[in-house]
Structure formats: structure tokens, C-alpha cells
Design a protein that fits this description.
Number of strands of chain B: 11
Oligomer: heterodimer
Low-confidence stretches of chain A: none
Mean pLDDT of chain B: 92
Number of helices of chain A: 0
Radius of gyration of chain B: 13 Å
Distance between the termini of chain A: 38 Å
Largest interface: A-B, 29 and 29 residues
Shape of chain B: globular
Number of helices of chain B: 0
Order of helices and strands of chain A: EEEEEEEEEEEE
Largest sheet of chain B: 7 strands, mixed
Order of helices and strands of chain B: EEEEEEEEEEE
Structural class of chain A: mainly beta
Shape of chain A: globular
Structural class of chain B: mainly beta
Largest sheet of chain A: 6 strands, mixed
């Protein structure tokens, strides 16, 4: 089963408006972390925001906020006041606890969502 | 701030040739990850190292091998290259064993083209 699901094929938003990018996840581990990365057309992978499964409050980082609904297993990224430079691919990713091994666990990515900001 | 450094940025090889990709993690980061991203695809985990020991293994072909050296840099060795190996290869590093909060910091990637 897919661990991370991003079903929106492509999103368009007008400059200066807010946009929500959807992400649902699947895990049986009670301890996990959720991450959002941005990948512009130039290819680099840029870390945006993190939400831990035990965090009581939704994460915020500047214009980025995470709408974390644990019971629904969703972690949607909200970008406020969109800018032209926000046009990129956005990946939701999860890191599971692996408490039984103690190993640093890998990130598992969703398929990504393309966001285009219109002037 | 120092970032993850990957070399080369671009690499063109022919089928059946070998390639070596290098990665220098952020100083003091103890874990290195390798990912492969095909055109229009999400990154796929290949392999990771913690304190120079292999930590986890993903969908890495047997033709590929990797290691982490005493100075923490890592190399991904790819042999008998196939057309399907053409992809963007990312190295990432993170700090802290079992620290789920620690994000993976990615290098700019090596774009491998096999002709």
C-alpha cells in the first residue's frame, strides 16, 4: 500500500493567494515525522517544513503551514501569499519511527504535486 | 551554511560502462542516504549509511554498490549501466540516530545520462 498519497495532479494559484496541497499517509507506527520538500525545475530538493506525530500544534515556517489532522492521517501544506517563485513540484514525505531497530530511517516520498503560480 | 556536495553535477556514460558518484555530507551529519529520481518520478530510496556502516537498503540494483568512508563522504558505484539508469541521483545527509525530527538535507544531485 502507498505510504504517502498525493492525488492532485497539478495545481494552479493566482499570485498572492493561498493554496493547499493535499497529502495523506499510512503508517502503523505511532511515532513518525512528516516533511514537505519543494523541487523547482532546476532539480534541487529543498526542505520546507516538518510535523511530528506527537506535536500538539500545527507546524509553521514563514509562509508555509501544515494542516495536520492525525485522525484522518492527513498533512496538508498551506502556502500563503503565493509568489511566482513558488512554482515547483512539492513532495510530501514520511519518516517512520523504527523504534525496534533504532536505525535512522529513510524518507518515503509521495508522487508529488506540481504547483503553478499565475501572475 | 555548508550543504551537501555532490559531484559531478552531470555525467554522460554509455551502456555497459561504469560510473562513480560522490557525496560529501554536511559536517557532523552521521547518516548518508542515496536516492534515485527518474524523469517525472518521486525519489526512490537506494541505500543509507550510519557511522560508515550500511543502515538500510532499498531498491538498489545488484549492479550498484555504495560505501561511506572514514571522512564520512560516500560513493555510489554503478556498473554495467543500462538506459534505465538515466536519472537524477541525490545524496542526502541527516544528523542524529533515531531523531525523526531531523530533516534530510539534499545535495543538488547528479544527473546521469546513459546513451
Amino acid at each position: 500500500a502507498q505510504k504517502i498519497t498525493q492525488t492532485q495532479p497539478g495545481m494552479f494559484v493566482q499570485e498572492k493567494e493561498a493554496v493547499t496541497l493535499d497529502c495523506t499517509y499510512d503508517t502503523s507506527d505511532p511515532s513518525y515525522g512528516l516533511f514537505w520538500y519543494k523541487q523547482p525545475s532546476s532539480g534541487e530538493m529543498i526542505f520546507l517544513i516538518y510535523q511530528g506525530s506527537y506535536d500538539q500544534q500545527n507546524a509553521t515556517e514563514g509562509r508555509y503551514s501544515l494542516n495536520f489532522q492525525k485522525a484522518r492521517k492527513s498533512a496538508n501544506l498551506v502556502i500563503s501569499a503565493s509568489q511566482l517563485g513558488d512554482s515547483a513540484m512539492y513532495f510530501c514525505a514520511m519518516r517512520e519511527g523504527r523504534r525496534y531497530t533504532g536505525a535512522n530511517s529513510k524518507l518515503t516520498f509521495g508522487k508529488g504535486i506540481t504547483l503553478s503560480v499565475r501572475p | 551554511a555548508a550543504g551537501v556536495i555532490q559531484s559531478p553535477r552531470h555525467l554522460i556514460k554509455e551502456k555497459r560502462e561504469t560510473a562513480t558518484l560522490k557525496c560529501y555530507p554536511i559536517p557532523r551529519h552521521d547518516t548518508v542516504y542515496w536516492y534515485q529520481q527518474g524523469p517525472g518520478q518521486d525519489p526512490q530510496f537506494l541505500i543509507s549509511f550510519y557511522e560508515k556502516m550500511q543502515s538500510d537498503k532499498g531498491s538498489i540494483p545488484d549492479r550498484f554498490s555504495a560505501q561511506q568512508f572514514s571522512d564520512y563522504h560516500s560513493e555510489l558505484n554503478m556498473s554495467s549501466l543500462e538506459l534505465g539508469d538515466s536519472a537524477l541521483y541525490f545524496c542526502a545527509s541527516s544528523l542524529g540516530r533515531g531523531v525523526r525530527r531531523s530533516p534530510l538535507h539534499f545535495g543538488n544531485g547528479t544527473r546521469l545520462t546513459v546513451t
